[in-house]
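Worked Example 4.2. Consider the chain below.
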Amino acid sequence: MGPRFETTPRRRWPLAVLALLLAALWLAAAFELGRRGLRPAPLSDVGKDAGGGARATLPAPETPTSESAPHAPVRVYFSPSPPGTPAGPAAQLLALLARARESVLCAWYDLELDAAAEALVALHRRGVRVGLVSDSDYRSRAAMKTVLEAGVPVVFDDSSGLMHNKFCVVDGQMVWTGSTNITNNCLFRNNNNALLLVSPELAENYAAEFNEMFSLRRFGPGPSKPTPHPVVNIGGVRVECYFAPEDRALAALLRTVGGAADRIDFMAFSFTSTELAEAMAARMGNGVRVRGLFERRGAGGAHPRDDWLAARGAEIHLDANPGTMHHKVIIVDAAVVAAGSYNFSRNAETRNDENLLILHDTALAGQYLDEMDRLVAEAAGAKSPSVNR
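Applying the procedure from the previous section yields the following structure tokens:
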């Protein structure tokens, strides 16, 4: 049993006076929240069965605040950090965790970074509600053992698919997501992107998905409650939110690609989806330019779509990173970005637990295009063979 904190007043106050004081405090708090444009983002009470048979019981949720929220409502970070850019995803993630005051709910496919494990332990010991969902394939990692031994509640996915998410919800206000696993390779060597979004509504979506896995132990295909806010507005950016396999993420991608009027650019660690390739080819038939960057080791052969798209006129490149080009990104008309943990594959659509955001913002699309231009230039400089040879 955890420590009990008793509040025994030293003097008795008349009930009427106490009622007036409480009412005044409530009105002051409501005014301050309204002034900041905030509203509470409800998080379900998480806590059922933790990995290893331990009970995962977290304290009741408290009303989140945004005192620690970053100013920009949507930010993207790339790894490895290009020269002259702000600190990359590792530093940004650790800074985000350090700002947590109420709750940290993470669904991480793989946890290897010791500093991230230590941050979760420190938060747990400080009384912040911490919960973690991970894939059972990485249960034996040293960083995971650090978290488990400290008593942080952890649930592992033992299903046949993957718990492939890489997201974290902080204080019911901030969402961290993208393609970046919490590993040394993904954070410091591989090409990845990480999004940080400030939105109570989006945080509620991700917290609901977390609770479905953590509290209900539901992974992969099966019954699921609807996403609370399928579309949110974050500082003027329209954001569509999808979780796989329940939300038909592929259908959303097909609509987005099918709406292209000028160009489609994409970076793909894995691209085996026939439906998505055919949708791109259909737009090429209407004069839309298609440019793709494939992870070299995932290209070629019978299933990847690089050769197939190149044969139909797409400009296709193979990456030059000696590590891994791990992006899963589509940019449409330099105005819309689809990004997340979702690879363009059947497993992502039908078996794995994944998340995908479709963000309508030209400035954000420009940042992703800059990243792709840089990687394509590196591939050309390294004489990485284009499929269009």
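The two ends are 67 Å apart (CA to CA). The first helix runs from residue 15 to 36. Compare this with Example 4.1 before moving on.
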